[in-house]
Structures are given as C-alpha cells and as structure tokens.
Amino acid sequence: MKHILTLALCLATTPALANRVFVSNEKGNDVTVLDGETLEVIGTYPVGNRPRGITISPDGKELYVCASDDNLVRVFDPETMEELHTLPSGPDPELFVLHPSGNPLYIANEDDNLVTVVDTRTHQVLAEIPVGVEPEGMGISPDGKVVINTSETTNMAHFIDSESFEIFANVLVDSRPRFAQYSADGSKLYVTSEIGGTVSVIDPATQQIVKKISFDIPGVLPEAIQPVGARITSDGAKLFVALGPANRVAVIDGATDEVKDYLLVGQRVWQMAFTPDEKYLFTTNGNSNDVSVIDVAAEKVVKSVPVGQQPWGVVVAPN
Amino acid sequence: MFKGIIGLLAGICLAAPPALAQQAEPQLIRAAVLRVDDPGLPPISRLDIPPEDDGFAGARLAIEDNDTTGRFMGQDFEAEEVTATPETAAAEMDRILGEGVAFVVVLADDATTLALADQAGERAMIFNAAARGDNLRGADCRANTVHVAPSQAMMADALAQFLMWKNWPRWFLIEGSHPQDKALADAFRRSATKFGAKIVEERLYEDTGGARRTDSGHVQVQKQMPVFTQRAAEHDVIVAADEADIFAAYLPYQTWDARPVTGSAGLVPRSWHPAMEAWGGTQFQNRFEKLANRRMREADYQTWLALRMIGEAATRTQSADPAVLKEFMLSDQFDVAGFKGQKLTLRDWDHQLRQPILLTTGNLTASVSPQDQYLHQTSQLDTLGIDRPETECQF
C-alpha cells in the first residue's frame, strides 16, 4: 500500500521535478531548491555540515551531497528533501562524480589525499585510491572508463581506470587544478587551474596537454582571474569556465578553444550546471550569496537569484 | 602498499609521458630546518608561548606534501630539524653544510640569519623563514638567500594601506626602546610617507625591565597606559612598534583616548593566522592540525612555504640537482601556491617572496592587503615593501 502511494506521488510530481535546481550552501549547511523554469526559490533544506559537492542520479531519484564536516555523503529524496540514507565517503569529501550509469560514486577526500569509490546501491566502499595532495576536481569520461582526479597542491590530473581503480597516467598542470570536464564525445579533457589562471586542454588518448587557454579581462587584475568550474555543451560548441573572484564566466569556442566573451556574474563564481535542455546555465557565487542564470544560446546573464550562505555547488535534476 | 606500487608502475608503462618519466631510484632532495632559539623573555601573553615544534611542524607537513607529489615523480624529500642557540648556530650550520645539504631553512633573528647566510656562502641556498629586517633585503642582501618571511616594510605597508582605506591618516606612533623596535618604527614612518599618512605624535616607551608578566593588566598597567598616552595630538589610531614584545599588548582598551590600536597589538599584520579560511585555507589548517595537534603559527607557515618552494621547483624541473632547482626558483618561470589566493613569486632585485599580508585581530582576519585601490604596473603585490626603483640591494 505504502509502495503504491509512493509511486503515485512520484508519477504525479515528476514533471515539476524535471528542472529543479539544487544549490549547496557551504556556510549555511543547507540546500536551496529553485524552480528551473520560473527561477523562483522553492525552499531551503538542512543537509548536514559544510555541504559542497552536489550531484543527482541519472534517474533523478537520489540527490547526493558531500557533507564535508560530517565526513560522509548524505543522500536525499530530491522530491521531498528527506534524507534517505548516508554513504561512507572517507574524511572531508569535497567533490565527486557519479558513473554515467549511476553507480559507483567517485569521491575526492580533500584532507586525506584519497579518492574513495562507493557503491551507491550496497553503500559499501569499493576502493580507496591514493592520489596527490588535496584532491578536488573529479571528472569521468563519457564511456565511464576513465575517472579524472585533480590534486590542488600536487598540481596533477590523475587518470584512474574506473574498474581496476589504478592510476595509469599523471599529467602535470598549472597551480591548483580545481575541476576536470570531458567533452561529451570524450575527445577533450579540460582541467582548470585556479592559481595558474589557465585551462589545460588535454588529449585523453595520449594524456598530453595540447593547449593552454589563458584569460585577459580589461580592468580586472590578472591575479583575480582564477578558473574553477567548467561545463561544456553536449554538442561541444561552447565551453563555460567560472573565473572565481574575477566575477566572470568565460565563454569559449569549443572547436578552437579560443575565448569569445566574458559574462559578468556574482562574486567569486565557482561551480556551474546546465538545465537538461541546456537552455540555462546556473552559476554559484560564493561571496554574493546568489546564483546567476545564463541564457546559453544568447550568452547573456538573464537573472540573479539570492540563495543561502556561500553557495558552492549546483546540480539540475534530469528530465 | 603493493597496490600502490602497481599503480605507480602502471603509470610508467601505460602513460610514460616524457614530462613525467620516472627513474628506478627516487631522486633524493635534502634540506635542513635550522631554528635558533633566543633565550629571551617569554611573551606577554601565555597564549603566545611558542610550542616545542614551532616551525618544525610546518616542515613536516611540507615534506608530507612534497613526498605525496614525489610518489608520482620519483622524488623523495627530507628535512632535518635542528635547534640551536645563538652560540651553537654556527657549529650546527657547519655540520649541516658538511653533510652536503644544499637547502637550509633558517628561523632566526636578523643578525643571526645574516651571519648564517654568510657562513653558508656558495655551499647552500638559505631560506629566511623568520627574520623581517629590511636591511636583509637591502644593503645587507645576500645572493644565496631568499626571504620567505615578509619584510617589516611589507608589514607596515599592508597596515598603512588599510588605515588609509579606512580614512584614518593621523597616527600616534609609539615605539619601544629596543633596536628592533626602532627598525619597525622606521618602517611605519616610511609607510606613512609612502601612503600619505601623518604621524601627529611620537612617543618612546622605555623598557625599564619591570615585572611585566606578573601584572596581567589590571594592577599597574591599567593606571600606567592611560597616563602614558595622555594628551597626545588629535589622532585617528595608535600605531605601536614593539617588536621586543614589551608593552604593545597592554595598549588596547587602556589608552587615554578611545582610539584603536594597530601594529604590534590590536590590528596586527601577519603572514598567517590560524583562523584564515579563504582560498582553500580551511583544508590546509585541517591538515596541519591533524598532523601537529595544534594551530598553525607564522613560523610553521613560512617553513612550510620554503620547503614547498623547493618541492615545487623539483616537480616542475624534474630535477634533484640543487643548482637546477635554485636557478629555476630565481627565474621568472617560478611560482608557488600558498593559500593566499594568488601565485607567489620572487622579486629578482632582493629575492623577497611577494605575498599578500593578513591584517588580523585576536580571532579573525580583518582584512588582507594589498587593498584593491592600490595598483601597480607590474604586480599589485609590489605595492607592499621595497620596490625595484628604491632597493638598496646589490648582489
């Protein structure tokens, strides 16, 4: 009876969930939920201590939040924002990436120089992989075969076999690599370097850096240009890179890897997420406590929405 | 462990990018940390008593960090921890040099640092991780020395920029009677001129060797400090130059006029503060506290940074050759990340590491200089300290 009721509830509300936006507020210890269509705040929900990385299962049924100071990943029902269960994550989970199939979850443990692999169904730790100092960025190839971890103080992108959990290549990049993002066809890997101020374009087949993208914004000090989050459209045409305290998002031509434009957003912009139709891109602005909404086609910021204290990560529910 | 080795081997076999070629035997990169403890007076506050492992704990974290990266590079790092007194420092330095260690991090006062640098000469590269004297970066600069610790001039400029931003240009300067107090007061005078502040009143606080620590503030100090600061010219702030730690800590809340205290007490410029959370600082503090079971002090931060510079040079050059590492560190190719929101680089005219300075109150970082409004044609960080045109350093 209970099951039927749950099912009915899900069926009834799925359309509304489709474009919901979840923003983790690092200092607020909560998640702000926005309606991806109306851009209105639906509610704010407690999620544990120091929430940072946030992602959602491909079927939209489980929302994962790195509760960094609780040393675990909390799993929520995105519909009700009730906590379903927790996953062991290893100490200080910061950022993670979900296998395209929805299992397992690869978690960067910032304080312990580890990547922890957790089975999202059995809730068991499958492996702990020693990586460089301060692991942060996590990416996965579209075919799910290669996991990328970036280590902020070691300054490397570690290539990890997603099944054997062995590191098979290390690529030295510029200072403080924060984020790793594959293009949808798997032909390019972008790694952002916060202090180096660059984005390394890596050929995943040879693990060689083929290009470094640098940034130059009139009137903005070079030291303030700190690339963090990166997202690329599924057709590979547009790469967006969040530039931290430069308060800009760079728009980059995905074919030439040349910067086309800089969009002014909120203060200290870090992470970003597309809506499933890629109409909008949401950015978290940690110092102005808001998210900026970018119209992807027009390459314009259309709105900013106040959220909680120090917004860190963002994910949008799938269709 | 076995798994780790396989992972490492797999890394060699599959990827073998030339940039990360590994060697059978790890390259060993050796350093020493020489701390010269001055048996002077204890600090005014018992909260400031240095721990036994002051500086060394920072070295341990740096070696851990370097070794973790070294696993992927085929490099292994070591730092011998040596304590000395001003009398035994030279002998210890001789021993270190005799062991062929080419990088020595020195935690000592200005004069001892200079003497040790001269003693090392060509044989070692010295990383000054404590001494702030401007002369060490000026007339007494040495080609074998890099200054990881910020200079007095940088500290004074960091404070001056903030005070000017606050629109508090009228300073009441109180300096102590020790030579190092005068050096700091001179740095404040220079900053006042540089940024357009006006020193409206100057007083000298004579160290008469009184019972400093027996009076925790409520007995004599409460009566002495108001009298000492009475009838000063109209001022916005007090700037205290008390490097010897004799009186400044007693100034806040005890002054005649209700004015904030800055400099050696109150709002204090520092290279590091354990409450710093910006720019990845939280995780850095966490890692340190887990290792050392205490909070990170400036000596720890500066020692960590010195050894990280060596590690960063070894990673980027893939070399363990001290000459190669030194050349790279002094080149314009070099930068290091130090949890201060931007890359840190060396000034080629005096080997001073450019770095933002934290302006701290008791429990917090109140601001970070350089302030946004102070611009510079080369690096905004060069608005702090002695810039190229004014340097007296000649290598």
Automatic annotation (TrEMBL), chain A:
<dbReference type="InterPro" id="IPR022456">
    <property type="entry name" value="PQQ_b_propeller"/>
</dbReference>
<keyword id="KW-0732">Signal</keyword>
<dbReference type="InterPro" id="IPR019405">
    <property type="entry name" value="Lactonase_7-beta_prop"/>
</dbReference>
<feature type="signal peptide">
    <location>
        <begin position="1"/>
        <end position="18"/>
    </location>
</feature>
<dbReference type="InterPro" id="IPR051200">
    <property type="entry name" value="Host-pathogen_enzymatic-act"/>
</dbReference>
<dbReference type="InterPro" id="IPR001680">
    <property type="entry name" value="WD40_rpt"/>
</dbReference>
<dbReference type="InterPro" id="IPR011964">
    <property type="entry name" value="YVTN_b-propeller_repeat"/>
</dbReference>
<dbReference type="Pfam" id="PF10282">
    <property type="entry name" value="Lactonase"/>
</dbReference>
<protein>
    <submittedName>
        <fullName>YVTN family beta-propeller repeat protein</fullName>
    </submittedName>
</protein>
<dbReference type="Pfam" id="PF00400">
    <property type="entry name" value="WD40"/>
</dbReference>
Automatic annotation (TrEMBL), chain B:
<dbReference type="Pfam" id="PF13458">
    <property type="entry name" value="Peripla_BP_6"/>
</dbReference>
<keyword id="KW-0732">Signal</keyword>
<keyword id="KW-0813">Transport</keyword>
<dbReference type="InterPro" id="IPR028081">
    <property type="entry name" value="Leu-bd"/>
</dbReference>
<feature type="signal peptide">
    <location>
        <begin position="1"/>
        <end position="21"/>
    </location>
</feature>
<dbReference type="InterPro" id="IPR022478">
    <property type="entry name" value="ABC_transptr_sub-bd_PQQ"/>
</dbReference>
<keyword id="KW-0029">Amino-acid transport</keyword>
<feature type="domain" description="Leucine-binding protein">
    <location>
        <begin position="56"/>
        <end position="206"/>
    </location>
</feature>
<protein>
    <submittedName>
        <fullName>ABC transporter substrate-binding protein</fullName>
    </submittedName>
</protein>
<dbReference type="InterPro" id="IPR051010">
    <property type="entry name" value="BCAA_transport"/>
</dbReference>
